[in-house]
Amino acid sequence: MFVRMVYESFRRQKRRKLLAGIAVTLGVTVATAMIAVATDIGDKINRELRRYGANLLVTPQEDTLDVEIGGVNLKPPSDGAFLNEADLPKIKGMFWRNNIVGFAPMLPANVNVRTGNDSKPVTLLGTYLSKQLRFGKEDFVTGVRITHPWWKVQGAWPDDNSNDILLGERLAAKLDLKPGDHLDLVDREPRVTGILSTGGSEDENIVVPLALAQEILGRPGAVRRIYVSALTKPEDALARRDPKSMGPELFDRWYCSPYVQSIAYQLQEAIPHSHVEQIRQVAQNEGTVLLRIKGLMLLVTLAALFASALAVSAAMATAIFERRGEVGLMKALGAGNTAVAALFFAEAMLLALLGGTAGFAGGTLLARQIGRSIFDSQITIQPVLFPVILAIAVFVTFAGSAAAIRRAVRFDPVFALRGEA
Amino acid sequence: MTSRPSQPAATTQMSATDVSSRRADSPHQSMFLRMLLRAAMLRRGRATSALLAMIVAAAVATAMMNLYVDVQAKLRTEFRNYGANIVIVDNGRGSLPTNALQVVESTLGDRGLAAPFAYVVARTSDGSSVVVVGTDFNRVRKLDRWWKVSAWPGAAEETLVGTRAAAVVSPQGKPFDLSFQGHTVHVRPAGMLETGAAEDSRIYMSLSDFVSWTDVQPSTIEVAATGSAEDATTAIQRLAQALPAAEVRPVRQILEGEARVLNKTRATLLASAVLIIVTAALCVLATLIGWVFDRRRDFAIMKALGASERLINVFFAAEAGALGVAGALVGFVIGIGVAAWIGRVNFHAPVVARFSVLPVVMAGSVAVALLSAVLPISLLRRVQPATILRGE
């Protein structure tokens, strides 16, 4: 009998049920989309923050001091220690390899550029531009185009396996060279494929594929430093602790959290004889910015949950209020308060489940759309979220209906049937 | 609104003279107000829930709009911690004019920070080269907040030594000698500097010590201009005009990163704000439509007693308008409070109340309220009052 009443109620009052269902669906859609966006925004903003450039710097352990002012290297190029280029792909073999967005090795060399009869000393920078590498079975692409996204090239980027070069903007202006021209480097004449503009000291440099710089320097396989761009977690008290002072359990937790410190530690393990420092300007600030934006979205999500809970409960209250007559009839026929309340709660439950499922699907689409239009990437929704969303939908629908149901069961059937409640 | 004491609901029980005398001394206008008031008073429950929905929606809308307007300013202050977004360098002729820093600071006013830097390559006592930088520690401290410094130098001849440089010049933190073009200076390391970048290999000393030792003037001024990317561009133009002998460059790495992150955050916030406001508006709409629909008997009685279509429309519109205005006002105050709280919790600075949001929220609330009154009325208009009164 109970089941039939619920069934008939849905069959006969399609319009009202539809309205309440739409309200639940809309509310759940907004809640799902907001929760999905809020849980994913950290990762998305983290990737955007990578536009500030690398946050880790790998240098040789036994290096001499850098003598560099305004991008001009005054250190004798053969001086100091080097890292081995062959060790580079190992970066993709470490524990947090998936958090490594990219890396770019650097090898500066001093060359002389002939201008007329004169020759002028210029810093030449060898690096990966967009190099195809392989570690184990995994192929990946890395280089300055990923780690230094603000570098702009007018013309074309040279191929990493070629002997073509990029000229810094201001150097090109001084030498009066355009893409397609050849640069006179005394003993060789490489082709200029593009003019590089960075707004930094590289505007005065020549940027070349790493292999060419190694050849010019006469040091095959050598790398002076590596810029690593990694997705990290904002620093907390644990992150700042010295790993040497930790117990094994704490150390594991530290090691398995993507703090900038623990990624630095793992890089040092992966690359022999290296010293890894966080670039504090980038690493320290991105944590704060990330925390702020995540906090903001969390609070906004709370507001969204509140608004959708309100919408659902308002719709439920209206739907129940309109059925006073029915309550009166049921009570006149001898139904107890419990029976009436049970009927309404069962209906609310059914509505919540149906609306919640539809809303979850709608919210998934909405979140995906937001991800695509704002971040050009998917916002993935964990399936774990589904039961949580359903539970929220049921809870909100119940909470929203409770007051209205309590009022409904207290109606005097006489007034209700006369339509005077 | 009216000075009348509240009356018992059943006016019919009063004597006719009583009623007529009461009516005589009240202007005709007040009937309209009375109907409005009594309608709200008698069905207090429904009216309150409608008003509540209105208030919550207006509050949420206010908070979201306020946040959306203010979040940019809040995040910008965070982004300024990234340091300089403009660099001023000599254009290849040695050093900047001696008054360059004063010119820069008067051009910027309070809209930015600036710090001068002068560089030389000096020799340590064992003959190795090291970059020594002269700067103003008080300014650098504000500009480059990410510098990790064990102790800032205060006295003369105290230096700040980069961690890598320290290993070479003064492994035990002892005083050391530096020589430049035959002049030797004896300095003490006051603290260690750690940045993870080029600064680690340098030694920093105060500009006055530096100039009296080397006679080299600053060649670079780093500037952190506050405000948007456009503000930075204007600052660059004004600085370039004020210092024709120098080259003023934007730090693209900082400016571009900031613009990207800000745009993405604002876009996400906008999407969320739209979603939340639409949900809240729909909720108000549903509640109000229910409320008005519920009162179809009032509507039918008014019509049966000969009220014109226009009067009924005006009556329900006035009711909706009053509800919208009241809800918007209370909601605005609450919304400002919520925005301020979010600002305090998340950004540790209160979000400034934007009164420009009020007309928008007000207009939106009244529009939603009117819409929710008009929809059921236009539905009911086609129905005979008798049908409604019979309860069908």
Can you offer a commentary on this structure?
- The complex is a heterodimer of chains A (421) and B (392).
- Chain A is built from 13 helices and 15 strands.
- Chain A is an alpha+beta fold.
- In chain A, helix 9 runs parallel beside helix 12 and helix 11 (337-375) packs antiparallel against helix 12 (385-409).
- In chain B, helix 2 crosses helix 3 and helix 4 packs antiparallel against helix 8.
- Chain B has a six-stranded mixed beta barrel with strand order 2-3-8-5-7-6, surrounded by four helices.
- Chain B starts with 15 loop residues before the first helix and ends with a helix.
- Chain B has helices at 16-24, 30-42, 44-79, 100-108, 137-143, 163-169, 207-214, 229-242, 252-294, 296-304, 309-347, 357-381, 385-389, and strands spanning 86-90, 112-124, 129-135, 148-149, 158-162, 176-180, 183-194, 202-206, 220-225, 246-250.
- In chain B, strand 2 (112-124) and strand 3 form a beta hairpin.
- With 392 residues, chain B is of the alpha+beta class.
- In chain B, 57% of the residues lie in helices and 17% in strands.
- Chain B contains 13 helices and ten strands.
- The chains are: A alpha+beta (421), B alpha+beta (392).
- At the A-B interface, helix 2, strand 2, helix 9 and helix 11 of A face helix 3, strand 3, helix 6, helix 9 and helix 11 of B.
Structure keywords:
heterodimer, A: 421 residues, alpha+beta, 2 domains, 9-stranded mixed β-sheet, two-stranded antiparallel sheet, 15 strands, elongated, B: 392 residues, 6-stranded mixed beta barrel, 13 helices, 10 strands, disordered N terminus
